[in-house]
Design brief:
With 302 residues, the chain is an alpha/beta fold. It has nine helices and 13 strands. The strands form three sheets. It has a seven-stranded mixed β-sheet. It has a four-stranded mixed β-sheet with strand order 5-13-7-8. It has a two-stranded antiparallel sheet with strand order 10-11.
Length: 302
């Protein structure tokens, strides 16, 4: 009986697939579902497993992920992407769990390497994902970025580097922008009722402002240097692009208010939030009277 199956979805991953497969060679069986790769991904994967299946490339992974899970025969599943690796201590932990499970599904933290740096903030750590689970206890909808449905008890592995999947995420800005455009196309195309789209000038500005403040300050992207600052802007740009594409579906109609008033209202809201977070940052980096001054500024949001 197969105790553990690694499930990997691929598309044009010839640069990653072998290192990924080497990191899961300790597993009983490997299932690869390829989405119409145009490179040597499938050829390389055949060196490690005969269980290779094809799935139509729909531009995102969720439908192919559900298809791949149906190919698992029995036991437990380790779901892993081609740009991820299983480090030694995590391998040992997984083996121990399979021998004496205490839950039906486990969330594993991911160590995201973005622009050649481990991103420990800006919402990227611990980045828990449901990756180890009993067959049948986890399923995905077909919508992009949908959250998995869970059955039974769920536990988290400790958010420690040695027990985290290594994820070689966005390596270049170009890669981020390419995925951004593809994903936002899919997300906007999934909308069924355009009349109910809550997207106008106010939502457009808020989409940027809310995401930027969260990434830059609330989740400490500013403390991560150039990569953290860049990611904060890029992720705010993602939400802005999605809001614009939704607005485009409504032919750029507003909700009955003046465009200028809408924009100014949203900008004032962003200004207030930005003032608060700038003051909050200064409080943490000053002392004495200067710190008192910034505490007052934070309270007043000016």
């Amino acid at each position: 009986m197969i105790k553990l199956t690694a499930v990997i979805n691929t598309k044009n991953e010839e640069k990653n697939i072998e290192d990924c497969l080497k990191s899961v060679e300790f597993i009983d069986e490997i299932v690869v579902v390829d989405m119409e790769s145009q490179d040597n991904t499938v050829k390389l994967a055949k060196k490690y497993t005969k269980n290779i299946f094809n799935h139509k490339d729909v531009g995102y992974v969720e439908p192919a992920r559900s298809f791949a899970l149906n190919k698992v025969k029995s036991g437990w599943v380790l779901l892993i992407d081609a740009d991820e690796r299983v480090p030694l201590q995590l391998k040992k932990q997984i083996k121990d769990i399979i021998k004496n499970p205490e839950a039906d599904a486990y969330l594993i933290a991911r160590k995201n390497i973005i622009f050649d740096k481990w991103i420990k903030g800006a919402g990227w750590w611990p980045d828990y994902q449901v990756r180890l689970f009993k067959k049948g206890s986890v399923s995905w909808n077909k919508e992009i970025h949908s959250q998995p449905k869970l059955k039974g008890e769920v536990k988290k592995l400790p958010a420690e580097e040695k027990l985290s999947l290594i994820h070689y995420n966005y390596q270049t800005v170009q890669q981020f922008v390419e995925r951004l455009n593809r994903y936002t196309d899919v997300q906007s195309s999934e909308i069924q009722n355009y009349d109910k789209i809550d997207s106008d000038a106010f939502q457009l500005v808020s989409a940027f402002g809310d995401e930027f403040l969260k990434r830059m300050f609330a989740t400490k992207g500013l403390a991560l240097g150039a990569q953290g600052v860049s990611l904060s802007f890029l992720q705010a740009f993602y939400q802005t692009t999605l809001a614009i594409k939704k607005w485009e579906l409504k032919e750029f109609k507003t909700n009955g208010q003046e465009l200028e008033a809408d924009v100014l209202s949203a900008l004032n809201r962003f200004k207030s939030g930005l003032s608060y977070w700038i003051a909050d940052w200064q409080i943490k980096h000053t002392t004495g009277l200067t710190q008192i001054y910034w505490k007052l500024r934070r309270y007043l949001k000016i």
